[in-house]
Amino acid sequence: MSEFIKQDDRVLLLFEDDTTFIVQVQDNILGTHKGVVELKNLIGKAYGDRAETKNGEPFLILRPRLVDEIFKMKRKTQIVYPKDMGYILMMLDIKEGDVVIDAGVGSGAMCAAIARMIGPDGKVFAYERREDFKKIAEANIAKWGFSERVVFKLKDIKDGFDEKANAIFLDVPDPWNYIPHCHKSLLGSGNIAIVCPTTNQVQLVLKELHGHAFVDIEVWESLLRQYKPVPDRLRPFDRMVAHTAFMVFARKVNDFKEG
Amino acid sequence: MSEFIKQDDRVLLLFEDDTTFIVQVQDNILGTHKGVVELKNLIGKAYGDRAETKNGEPFLILRPRLVDEIFKMKRKTQIVYPKDMGYILMMLDIKEGDVVIDAGVGSGAMCAAIARMIGPDGKVFAYERREDFKKIAEANIAKWGFSERVVFKLKDIKDGFDEKANAIFLDVPDPWNYIPHCHKSLLGSGNIAIVCPTTNQVQLVLKELHGHAFVDIEVWESLLRQYKPVPDRLRPFDRMVAHTAFMVFARKVNDFKEG
Amino acid sequence: MSEFIKQDDRVLLLFEDDTTFIVQVQDNILGTHKGVVELKNLIGKAYGDRAETKNGEPFLILRPRLVDEIFKMKRKTQIVYPKDMGYILMMLDIKEGDVVIDAGVGSGAMCAAIARMIGPDGKVFAYERREDFKKIAEANIAKWGFSERVVFKLKDIKDGFDEKANAIFLDVPDPWNYIPHCHKSLLGSGNIAIVCPTTNQVQLVLKELHGHAFVDIEVWESLLRQYKPVPDRLRPFDRMVAHTAFMVFARKVNDFKEG
Amino acid sequence: MSEFIKQDDRVLLLFEDDTTFIVQVQDNILGTHKGVVELKNLIGKAYGDRAETKNGEPFLILRPRLVDEIFKMKRKTQIVYPKDMGYILMMLDIKEGDVVIDAGVGSGAMCAAIARMIGPDGKVFAYERREDFKKIAEANIAKWGFSERVVFKLKDIKDGFDEKANAIFLDVPDPWNYIPHCHKSLLGSGNIAIVCPTTNQVQLVLKELHGHAFVDIEVWESLLRQYKPVPDRLRPFDRMVAHTAFMVFARKVNDFKEG
Known about the structure:
4 copies of one chain form a homotetramer. Chain A has 259 residues and is of the alpha/beta class. Chain A has helices at 66-72, 82-92, 109-118, 131-143, 179-185, 199-210; strands at residues 10-15, 20-24, 29-32, 35-38, 50-52, 58-62, 99-103, 123-128, 150-154, 165-170, 186-196, 214-228, 235-236, 239-241, 246-252. The mean pLDDT of chain A is 95. The interface between A and B is large, with 78 and 78 residues. Chains A, B, C, D: Keywords: Methyltransferase, S-adenosyl-L-methionine, Transferase, tRNA processing.
């Protein structure tokens, strides 16, 4: 990855007041609260360099991380938080070449994280029944350069999935209704992750999972706490995210352990 | 990835009592508490299938996830937990083609997780000053098939690193001493993650980070809580991991914001 | 409270290996792993003093706190933990002169904590349907000196309570069945606290509470985390209690807000 | 405690929009966003009853709990939260007749909670060096009816305390400087609790405690998480208090264990 900014790169501009902008470098300008930035002037500078607006206000040029993109992206839906994303990717064991089903795709944040991990030989089948969500997700995925890896399907999943997959990520309001479809579409030993905001949903999902040939059924929640980065007064921030969703994991087997 | 078990695959055998074994399928046998398994007989079966020991005891054949491997691997060191791993990978923004420095490599768990994400075009430079740890890490990395992507260096990092990197993962007892080296070796806008078991270490690391050109300095800790997967009595397990390490993140810039 | 140990005092002996004993000072001896202690010899010593066993092994004499008593007491039941006790007492607003119903009393830990707060003019009505539990609780309450304040009732609560109370503490497996009884027995504006190990129980309790004239319905859980008290390596202990029970609180009103 | 509202009672008025007012019932009126309340008209009503403003807007009349008073009280300082208060009272083992030192008293919330537990025969010595804080605390304590039990001292504690106490609660910015004074003023086996917002303060306090004759040195923090009380969608609220203060506890002994 080049050290220097090139035409069409996405860059993150960080101002002294911690305001940030993520923008693609083209022959255009960006208007900010600190004055105008001529983006083409950034070409050839190194990532990590300082530059200035027309008003002489300094900013730093960073490479946007996926976590930055996710927090800045256009969205209409509740997103899976980075605190949960990383753990879900680990538990789903997403890797190069995997075929993954992502249903419902929402704004595409988790889809992008999966697409990045499967590499050029993998594939994500992204189901979404709402056209407006699908459009946003497609635009986000395109912007981040993963369109080749993602097949979008505007489709209700009540009739099941069209593919066999190594892993399924299920983020819909009534996940318990699709557990049989998931079992059918998972390859043997394939992993499923289901996110549920409420305990009632978890209960219904567990009931379904126990009724099908799944093993290693686990339920987790993550609490991430941030500290003020002040060496002489190190302490957590006053408030934190208390809850996003419970995460339910399981692995498909071809018949019951109890067989 | 094939649905069927082939010679040389690594497989996870799950018994009814939740005992597991991870083993490579070759022309050999595995002795278990439930009787002997002739491993070559597994070839051609599908992942997710049942099989039996010579004693007729059933087990399920699963594909080991990286998280399974990590909890089973030979190790002499405290490991980074999957609960933290996923978040660190997100915050370091590890992706295809990245060059990453991993110091000290310990038993190689984090190294493997990074190697998997960088794909065939990326590279991990894995520093470890203790020969016994390096040997274990090399063996683990080889076993998991990532040797091509990892360059091991038996070396103290007090004189710095030999490479420039997109990201650095620092897991040593005195990380504050190497912040200047990290700054020098990071490419502009590159990400660093430092894990510290104690608050005192975090304080010293923060002091150093604030003294160099880093931005987005953040300190986090994660609490993962598991629930008993019983639909009619859904509740957390009685006990949980309370602490592994604080995670400190930052991004290198080429000169100070205050510049 | 006297600084000096008197006949019949309960004392806590703390040995160098952190072993503790709680015992009443009488004309008897205590056998320990470090040798015999003649208890009457402690009379006249000051709390906080050192003494020695017959073998010359030193120990410290402390006044047992209620939390020490609770962790040492004879019990057959899951107890309410001090982490939750303090919060429940605050939310129930227990104070001098209060009349409190405690159902089921279990081993009597919460009963003791309430009895202590209500003072000599208050009263606890302690319901327990199992005779073996009631006996243990009565013995514990007697030992701690609160018998005058507690009226034990060996009785199923399915037919309700015999008293009107300022506050009710409900710790039974099916609390939702007794919410109408609780409403009837609470004085106007009286507080109720219900402990439930599972989310399913909380759901059923909430449904009942919403069906009666209660306000300020709140559900809480507490996570207490302990740190190793080492100034140069300050960090949490590795493991912690992840869950004891959810705490549900509400306040009775005489008719519905929506009324 | 009477079921009926009397002249001079403090009452909490709860409106349908969850707005609350705490006020003393006298021959006066209370102006609210829902219209005027003639307070003397409440006399003779029962706690838990409904009443109406002059505009016909309904409200409920509740007895204010101490936790309600604390969240409503006039204050200029960070307060100890009820989540921590209850636990501190348990660990300090505050009980009838105790003599307790409270330094610095701040707005008086903890002082009130202690005063309530010690009963009419106990005493709190409340140290505060800032006159404005002391005035607020005295007014709060008077309002809640505990003036007889609290002796306020406008005084810096750098020269120590004038009393011997069963327990000390220390809530000042530099608590490590007063550990020797605390040791001197505690009766043998007496309990101390120190609240520290930062890890650096905890480290310094621990260093001092280890240098004096204290045992059972413990450091805790509490995380209280609240759930939305909706039976069909039971889940935690999105955000929570992440941190107020670390709590350090210890018990005085008359000479060292190692002695």
